[in-house]
Amino acid sequence: MDQFNNHPLYKRHNIDSAMNSLWEFYRKHFLTLFIASVVMSLVIQYASTLVNMKELSDITDPMILLEKIEGLIVPILGISLINLLFTTILQYYIIFKPIDSQTTFFTSIVKSLKYFIPYLIIMILLAFAGSIAIVLGIFALVVGAFFAMLYVVTIYLFILPVMMVEDANIGSTISRTISLAHRHFWTNIGWVAVFIILMLVISVILSGIILIPFSGSFIRNIFKPGDSAALADVTTKPLFIILSAVVSALTMPLMPIFACILYFNGKAVEDYVQQASQENPPDSKVTVEDLYARPYSDNHPENPDKKVTVDDLYAKPYSDDHPDNPDNEKDLGTD
After folding, report:
1. How confident is the model at residue 223 (pLDDT cuts 50, 70, 90)?
2. How many CA atoms lie within 13 A of 303 on its CB side?
3. Which of 133, 178, 288, 320 has the largest count of CB atoms under 10 Å?
4. Looking at the whole model, is its pTM more than 0.85?
5. Handedness of CA 281, 286, 288, 294 (dihedral sign)
6. Contact 126/152 with Cβ under 8 angstroms?
7. Nearest alpha carbon to residue 239 among 205, 202, 211, 206
């Protein structure tokens, strides 16, 4: 665990230092992260084209539409599994590369596999619990649903860093994740909200840029709303797939990096508090008793509760060798 204290993202952050660390890490490892993310995004984009959403736009019968959607569940689950696998690989590389020079992206693929199945199980549990939280949030109107989604995303971001850094099993990962997420709850929620807003803004801008070559198809769809099939064909064109993969590659590493920042910030604060408590043990802390004068002992001369005895009314006799003792014989010298 101590080796992670040298990780560049391990520090007590504020929102400014968190965003600066995010950018510095992203910039330093950009080439490797970008190339790997492009390959991953191409695989995901190509797999997405195999899910034929075009035929759904032509179906008007609700029962047939439900049957078609049921047939797409397996391909969609497959794409989700691929996405989770790529997330696990990226997270492993981001955590271990800065502290282990032997770590490469190819070794990360192999070593991250041990975390994939536990991560998948936790994600299934989180999806179930998150769905309940969001449904309950809907009863509190839009604000409640939005807060529930923020909470679920916050919990999600802690999962892989806890599992990989602390080498925790499924139960320990869940309890530790909830503990870290709740320790600085409002700070974590606020940072996640800021990050999501930034991601949305960046994604909208980049998506608008890649749609410029296909603007003619979108304009025709505005004037001919019924021609939705032509619009769906745009997403299957090789140029659109490549551009979408490039855009996704630009933003894909940001979430694993931010997840590390959240975790290492919580861990650094925890370590700081623990170290401070060791340097200042509880015995040295000021207590309520220290604010008041300690009581005198029973025989203390200034004790106001001390009882006066008869002996205290008379002077104590001198000792035999005391100079003021009148019974003490002195040797007078002669001149």
Report:
1. low
2. 12
3. 133
4. no
5. positive
6. yes
7. 211
Amino acid at 155: I
Q: 62-96 and 113-139 helices cross at what angle (nearest 10)?
A: 130
Number of neighbouring beta carbons within 10 Å of residue 295: 9
- The distance from CA 124 to its chain's CA centroid, rounded to whole angstroms, is 19
Provide, rounded to the nearest whole percent, the portion of the chain with pLDDT above 70: 70
Give the closest residue to 270 by CA, choosing from 11, 80, 69, 6. Answer: 11
41 and 240 Cβ atoms separated by less than 8 Å: no
Local structure of 134: helix, strand or coil: helix
Please write the tens of the pLDDT for every residue from 256-315.
999 999 999 999 988 888 887 777 665 555 565 655 556 666 666 666 666 656 565 556
Q: Quote the DSSP letter at residue 215.
A: H
Handedness of CA 19, 25, 27, 33 (dihedral sign): negative
26, 105, 136, 152, 303 from 31: Cα distances, Å: 9, 12, 43, 31, 79
41: which residues sit within 8 A by CB, 6+ positions away?
244, 245, 246, 248, 249, 252
Whole-number Cα distances in Å, 148 to 31, 137, 191: 35, 6, 15
Tokens representing residue 171 in the block: 């139960």
Whole-angstrom Cα distance, residue 165 to residue 172?
12
**Cβ atoms within 10 Å of 120's Cβ, excluding its own:** 15
Among 73, 124, 114, which residue's Cα sits nearest to residue 91? 114
Question: Measured between alpha carbons, how far apart are the two ends of the chain, in Å?
Answer: 91
